[in-house]
Amino acid sequence: MSAEYPTTTRVLQKKPSESAFKQQKLPAWQPILTAGTVLPTFFAIGIAFIPIGVAILFFSEGVQERVVEYTDCNSTTDSGKPGRPCAEIIGDSRNHSITKPCICNVSFQLPNDYPGQVYIYYGLTNFYQNHRRYVKSRDDVQLLGKLNSQPSTDCAPYAFLNYGNGTRKPIAPCGAIANSMFDDEFQLFYGNSSLSLVPWDRTGIAWPSDKDIKFRNPPGVLKEAFAEFAKPVDWRKNIWELDTETKDDSNNGFQNEDFIVWMRTAALPNFRKLHRRVVHSEAPFQNGLPKGQYYLLVNYWYPVKGFKGTKSFILSTTSVLGAKNPFLGYSYIVVGSLCLVVGIIFLVIHIKYGKSTVEVVNVTPTTSYQ
Is the pLDDT of residue 121 over 80? Predict the structure, then answer.
């Protein structure tokens, strides 16, 4: 005999609660696109954008800029074959057997005075810092000064340095971004018969938010803090020796501003990064850079031929809108002009074939198409 169990009936309430939101009773507004609303919008955008574009172009054209490409500059220190390109001497990739830089000189003219504050940039082309694996190849916890014997797996294959005898050390800073840091060194001289060294400052080039928040040094003396860590494979200096000019720990380690600027990856393959700020406290540079003859002395370390790139040294002033950027001005002018043209075309069509708003609203299935 089978047992009988009581049955219950469960009523599922699927109806949502009585509220304007859940019952979809909220007030709504749907605009009716008519000639009276669309045409003024096109004309307003056109009339506003064209003057803005012209103003941006005006300020951009006021920026003085000199780009000096030195990729193929010839060596002045190669005793075996004088005049050989430095790019050929150092090779297409990092050559760790080279202990001295290839030194080359590049002369150029400034046809006009560069008034006000002058900034120095280095530029690279065909360098894809936006590659997905390259962008991920870093350890943000390590960069906060929290050194760990096990760097992030994103840093591989630049996480550990193998010494060949079964021992290895973790790398700090680890990752492909840090390993590929730009390390050419520059000196700029002005004049003809007597040369004056252009003074510059290597601080104040990084974003304050980066130096104060994203990059922190480990506590204690830097050399001791990094004693159990190896420097990146392609670096010539240790992390605590990056600033050899001031030898100040506040601008060494992870808080070195050259390092911080490099770690902020570029979005496009052709980019420039801020390198120095000219100091305008000594003659003849108090009011900017005077026009005339300049000589650029380069300690050529960084290889670019391997990825078919180029290197540039850039002098630039700024405007109230920042650095030179004519593209933004042209974009505003093109968009504004297109809006005006489209607005005129629509206006002609409306005058010739348009209907009133009342006629559009009162359209029914029996309304004639004429």
Answer: yes
